[in-house]
Amino acid sequence: MKPPLLASSVLRKARIFPYLVTLLSFIVFVAVLYGEDFICLFSQPLQLGSYRYQPSTRTEKKWKKLPFALGKTEEGCDVFSGRWVLDESTRPLYQESECPYIQPQLTCQEHGRPQKDYQYWRWQPHDCSLPSFNATLMLETLRGKRMMFVGDSLNRGQYVSFVCLLHSIIPKGAKSMETFDSLTVFTAKDYNTTIEFYWAPFLLESNSDNAVVHRISDRIVKKGSINKHGRHWKGADILVFNTYLWWMTGLKMKILLGSFDDEVKDIVEVSTEDAYRMAMKSMLRWVRKNMNPKKTRVFFTSMSPSHAKSIDWGGEPGLNCYNETTLIEDPNYWGSDCRRSIMQVIGEVFDKSKFPITFLNITQLSSYRKDAHTSIYKKQWSPLTPEQLANPVSYADCVHWCLPGLQDTWNELLFAKLFYP
Ligand SMILES: *[C@@H]1O[C@H](CO)[C@@H](O)[C@H](O)[C@H]1NC(C)=O
Ligand SMILES: *[C@@H]1O[C@H](CO)[C@@H](O)[C@H](O)[C@H]1NC(C)=O
Ligand SMILES: *[C@@H]1O[C@H](CO)[C@@H](O)[C@H](O)[C@H]1NC(C)=O
Ligand SMILES: *[C@@H]1O[C@H](CO)[C@@H](O)[C@H](O)[C@H]1NC(C)=O
To answer: Domain total for the chain?
Structure first.
């Protein structure tokens, strides 16, 4: 990688950005390959039975009328509980080639994916139907407003999907997307609307905030530092957070108590769960202080599952999502157990929330989608070696998702929960 990011012009940054995204994708990829295994093997004191937490709607029910709500989801319908149905008549919701905002790490068709099956699945909740994503309604609602996604590369994928779902009703010349360091801004001029993405993989300040100068294995998060990034989120009318993958470094997480500038850094090591709990609490505190529950909404997207080990779904050992074109059919499939303890932390913290956070519980429904990852059909970070080329499993990305694809469903759920909580 080149040194930059000190580059002065926005244009230059815009050109560098895709590389940074690739670099980060690669790091996350490495982290998952080597990190998740580790934590799954060693940090599971939880018994399987102990995880049956249902915080998803509890926090919202305490509030009668949420901003933006037009109605209610049918009583007793959990939109996150359902099944995938093949629906070639209504999917995909847009074409890969018609959405210029998809980064080349997610354009699977352009990078040679031989089939499109992954684009035709529609999520069908068991007990009700999802409302159709109405781009006109969404844009009218956002008129004069600011919507922001905050988190890591997976949230960036959801952000891009969201923009793809509505950009086609805006004429050329009345819309733009620009990137300034950590911030990407999509502007719909005639609506006086911006839809933004802010890079903060831990939400808190960390040594991974700069896309170029970072460490792979030695991640450090600064305690109580949410305002470092949070000051850029102020004034948002709708916020969509995520954070998960970057915490998966192993058993312990390094927490900085002082400043990153201290010569001798004051660092403690705590369990991943405790570190994650600290971040969730910081996020909630920030939300309570800076967001107005009568006018604004806050969403939190749960952990995006990866498919790095085929043995998880009963496949041959040593393989991963590469070549997978079918869904996992076992409705009880969950994947690596390490997600459970984090889900539990989220549940515990959100249950006590004094602000109505809308929880997008996409983990289970996404875990069936081993077919939906970008795999080898993406722009590569660096040229592949002959050894890699001879063994595609070795470089398949089983973390990120092709667009159009699974993440459009996350946004249909976001749409459903925004207007029909
Ligand atoms: C998320 O949804 C799945 C599937 O409906 C459910 O089993 C799980 O308990 C939910 N998790 C939370 C934290 O609500
Ligand atoms: C989409 O929303 C707009 C604005 O509320 C409404 O006029 C239109 O009928 C909706 N379209 C569909 C297909 O529901
Ligand atoms: C545009 O929206 C911002 C809030 O995002 C508001 O402060 C401003 O007054 C709006 N401008 C116009 C011309 O409506
Ligand atoms: C992937 O699928 C192709 C075509 O079906 C097959 O030839 C190849 O052996 C598969 N590779 C792996 C690693 O399963």
So the answer is: 1
Please tell me the number of the ligand nearest to residue 320's CA. Answer: 4
Tell me if 393 CB under 6 Å of ligand 4.
Answer: yes
Q: Is residue 9 part of a domain?
A: no
> Using one digit for the tens of pLDDT, what is the confidence trace for 159-189?
999 999 999 999 999 999 999 999 999 999 9
Q: Which domain holds residue 200?
A: 17-419
* CA separation for the pair 405, 327 (Å, rounded): 13
- Ligand 2 centroid vs 134 CA: distance in angstroms? 6
Residue 219 lies in a domain: yes
CA of 192 to the centre of ligand 3 (A): 6
Q: Can you give the pTM of this predicted structure? A: 0.88
> Any idea which ligand is nearest the CA of 192?
3
Selection from 366, 382, 421, 379 nearest residue 158 by Cα: 366
Please report the atom of ligand 2 found closest to the CA of residue 134: 1
- Asked if residue 159 belongs to a domain, the reply is yes
Instruction: List strands edge to edge, sheet with 183-188.
Output: 175-180, 183-188, 193-199, 146-151, 238-241, 297-301, 357-360
CB distance 135 to ligand 2 below 6 Å: no
